[in-house]
């Protein structure tokens, strides 16, 4: 994944040499048993160079686990790890220590990630930068013991992926750390995050895993970045995730012939980029895509679901290109996180839980008018808790309001829809989201809008789960659309002029 390069201190080289001289050697350090990750985890990437608090942002987004990006050396040739390659953010309790303790106290954890796109292009990925296997292993061990974590992620891209010497050093260093952890009774997992094609790993990524097998290095999760394909082909981003992961599963089967089908799927992770990726609008991952991927991931039993990155999960730049701080599409803040968060399967259910429903579950509003529904909550386990309510999915021209916006489980709120005089006809699925202390729940409401032309769209509303063939028509966002060929999960209005859906105009 991409990030902007940090500024360097004037005496960084001198500081690097001093810190490297005091590096813990493999075999030393404490080995307190960290809490293992759950068997299924949603762990979005957190951009660690922004100055934001990972604990505060995780709580706001309603997620328990984060993949923290990135750890790399300050300069090529160094063996000392830093957050973001900056000597001002060393691996120590003073850097993110309190945030990580807070996340762990809530029952979550972080996954430190080594590497990334910038490290892969500047020679500062630690196994590429450092030629000493023991020092690389010591760097991994220092991160594990400093933050008391149970998984390390290796995000290997561009030059670092093609450097066969560094690939071998890295796997040898990981094996040393795995042996150290086993000798000390410590749970440790390792994930490799790698670029992918729509049909599985390219040869360089596959060669990296072959090298791991030859070195006796255990790879717990092969996590593929299902975006930035740059192949100039039409893309159904959800379907491409499925075919890329199927290809990876088949590649893993050849590397690990003794594993069952369930075990192979349990080795797989996928990382999405919400909204517009670096290639541009032709590779746009929509909220409908996210719902499809979520259902697929649960059904297949994959290990890890992630996204790049938590800071992008907002609609602050609709119609824009790829940025690190927004998705480039129209959405509410945390829409993607709220879809993916339930993927995490904890060993224990929350002690207190609740439900969210709408009564009625559907209704209509006329241009210039209003409509209401009651949002009901109930205690389903434990004690009543505060629930913060939000609404997403309303089309342009429909304003929503909740009164009150926060309730105690067992109480109700009134959701009001106000239609502008010029609103267009259509049928829309509105999501009412409830965020509690430890869990989130949502309910759907189907809103039919009778627009300023006095009629409703006659075609059936588009469904992300339904298969459409050439010539079939649907209504979506106040327009009628015709499918040019077979499709499933591709949202009308997101596929572009040359995509599957032809816009037949407003209805």
From TrEMBL:
Residues 348-369 are annotated as: Disordered. Its EC number is 3.2.1.14. GO terms for cellular component: extracellular region. InterPro entries: CBM5/12 (IPR003610), CBM_sf_5/12 (IPR036573), GH (IPR017853), GH18_Chitinase (IPR052750), Glyco_hydro18_cat (IPR001223). Keywords: Carbohydrate metabolism, Chitin degradation, Chitin-binding, Glycosidase, Hydrolase, Polysaccharide degradation, Signal. GO terms for molecular function: carbohydrate binding; chitin binding; endochitinase activity. Residues 355-369 have a biased composition (Low complexity). PROSITE patterns: GH18_2. GO terms for biological process: chitin catabolic process; polysaccharide catabolic process. It catalyses: Random endo-hydrolysis of N-acetyl-beta-D-glucosaminide (1->4)-beta-linkages in chitin and chitodextrins. The keyword Hydrolase applies. Residues 40-330 form the GH18 domain. Residues 1-20 form the signal peptide. It holds the Pfam family CBM_5_12. This is chitinase. It comes from Streptomyces buecherae.
């Amino acid at each position: 994944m991409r990030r902007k390069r940090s500024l360097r201190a004037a005496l960084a080289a001198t500081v690097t040499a001093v810190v490297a001289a005091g590096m813990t050697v493999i075999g030393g350090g404490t080995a307190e048993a960290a809490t293992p990750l759950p068997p299924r985890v949603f762990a979005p990437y957190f951009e660690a160079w922004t100055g934001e608090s990972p604990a505060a942002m995780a709580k706001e987004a309603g997620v328990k686990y984060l993949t923290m990006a990135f750890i790399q050396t300050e300069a090529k040739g160094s063996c000392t790890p830093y957050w973001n390659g900056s000597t001002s953010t060393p691996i120590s309790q003073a850097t993110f220590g309190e945030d990580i303790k807070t996340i762990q106290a809530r029952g979550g954890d972080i996954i430190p990630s080594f590497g990334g796109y910038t490290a892969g292009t500047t020679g500062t990925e630690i196994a590429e930068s450092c030629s000493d296997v023991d020092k690389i292993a010591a760097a991994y061990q220092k991160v594990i013991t400093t933050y008391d974590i149970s998984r390390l992620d290796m995000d290997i891209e561009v030059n670092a992926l093609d450097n066969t010497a560094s690939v071998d050093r890295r796997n040898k260093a990981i094996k040393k750390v795995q042996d150290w952890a086993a000798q000390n009774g410590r749970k440790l997992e390792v994930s490799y995050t790698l670029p992918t094609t729509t049909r599985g790993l390219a040869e360089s990524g596959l060669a990296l895993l072959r090298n791991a097998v030859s070195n006796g290095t255990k790879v717990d999760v092969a996590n593929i970045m299902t975006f930035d394909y740059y192949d100039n082909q039409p893309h159904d981003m959800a379907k491409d995730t499925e075919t890329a992961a199927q290809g990876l599963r088949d590649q893993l089967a050849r590397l690990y012939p003794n594993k069952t089908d369930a075990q192979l799927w349990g080795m797989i992770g996928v990382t999405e980029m919400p909204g517009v990726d670096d290639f541009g609008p032709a590779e746009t991952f929509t909220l409908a895509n996210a719902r499809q991927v979520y259902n697929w991931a649960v059904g297949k039993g994959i290990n890890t679901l992630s996204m790049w990155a938590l800071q992008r999960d907002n609609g602050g730049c609709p119609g824009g290109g790829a940025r690190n701080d927004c998705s480039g599409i129209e959405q509410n803040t945390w829409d993607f996180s709220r879809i993916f968060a339930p993927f995490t399967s904890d060993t224990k259910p929350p002690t207190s839980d609740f439900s969210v429903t709408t009564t009625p579950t559907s209704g209509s509003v006329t241009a210039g008018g209003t409509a209401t529904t009651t949002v009901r909550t109930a205690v389903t386990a434990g004690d009543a808790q505060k629930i913060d309510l939000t609404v997403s999915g309303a089309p342009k021209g429909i304003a929503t309001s909740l009164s009150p916006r926060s309730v105690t489980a067992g109480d109700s709120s009134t959701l009001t829809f106000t239609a502008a005089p010029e609103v267009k006809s259509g049928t829309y699925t509105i999501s009412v989201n409830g965020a509690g202390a430890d869990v989130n729940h949502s309910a759907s409401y189907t809103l039919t809008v009778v627009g300023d032309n006095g009629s409703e769209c006659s075609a059936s509303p588009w469904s992300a789960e339904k298969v459409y063939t050439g010539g079939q028509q649907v209504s979506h966002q106040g327009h009628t659309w015709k499918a040019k060929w077979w499709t499933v999960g591709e949202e009308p209005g997101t596929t572009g002029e040359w995509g599957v859906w032809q816009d037949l105009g407003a209805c």
